[in-house]
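USER: If only I could read backbone structure tokens as easily as an amino acid sequence. It would mean a lot if you studied the pair and described how this chain folds. Here is the record:
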Amino acid sequence: MRFIHFCDIRIGNSAESGRHWEKARSLELESGLDRVMKEAADYSAGLVLISGGLFSHMPLSSELESVNRIFAAYPGIETVIIAGSTDPVRRSAPWRSFVWAKNVHFIRDDKPCSIELTRLRTVVYAASVADDGCIDPNELRSFIKEVSDNAEPIRIAMLYSEDDKSVKEALSGNGLSYTAVGSLQPGYRSISNNIICPGHFEPDAMGDNGQHGIIRGEISEQTGILESAEFVPMASAAYVPLLIKTNAKTDAAELESLVKKEILKRGENNIYRLKLTGQRNPEESFDLDRLRKEYRIGEIIDETEPEYDFRSLFAEHPQDMIGFYIAKIVNDKHDMSAVEKRAMYYGLNALLSTTEE
């Protein structure tokens, strides 16, 4: 029996709120579910496991209807869903009363329950997240022990948890074929050989530079033993750090060309944290607003330093304020923070400008 496992696709995520690519990114997240289900069909998977975080918030009825149409388009694929920390079940939540397609099994309670999928010779033990937090893995273990006598050969557990150690201690060696874990932690984690958290389906914060995607696996229908489980990258975009080093000859046009070249090489769909280092002409200013408007540049850090000829300047201003500034920069620049160093250069530039006037 082949299966797909993912979590934290977070439909409706507004991590890029206020950016010019906000709407496009939102559509990418929404299309992610389509891509996963198509992948499941292409892989001939009989089961899709969503271990929390289908939405980034408590879903509206209209949002549930939208995703339900996607699941219903694949009637041959059984889909089991639990709620996670971003979309917990509540008494008044549309989750509880919504009528899903026949192939969709949503866990409405925060207490352990079991779902038998006879056609797949599979039983799934699971619990959703409620307002008061995630289920204790030991509670799920106790429930599995109580009801396991009539279980199918393939036995799968699903839970949302931040405590990998407790999950491993409670659910390892329990006769389970696979444990599908969801978590607020963004990265893929193999907690043990058959206990896996795929991490967030898409990155949603600057600095989250790892790979994101799904688990694609296979379980023996005869023995219930996990035969394979591989991580498959599927994210539509990544947060990419981009370092550009300049020199005193680099002008604004050349810098723009360098940045464009590197972004086109890495992918225009990605979101960049651009960092500029090196030297620059003191009279040159880098205006990257055009690049911000054209590409997905989430942050720009300019650590370039003006390349002054301190020796010549000091010879011209040995006993005035400019000379004082130069002596201070030369003596202290290796001990100053980036902010202090920048302030010192700004001060020197202001003094030189005043002198020229």
Summary: Residues 141 and 201 are 27 Å apart (CA to CA). DSSP finds ten helices and 16 strands in the chain. The first strand starts at residue 2 and ends at 6. The radius of gyration is 28 Å.
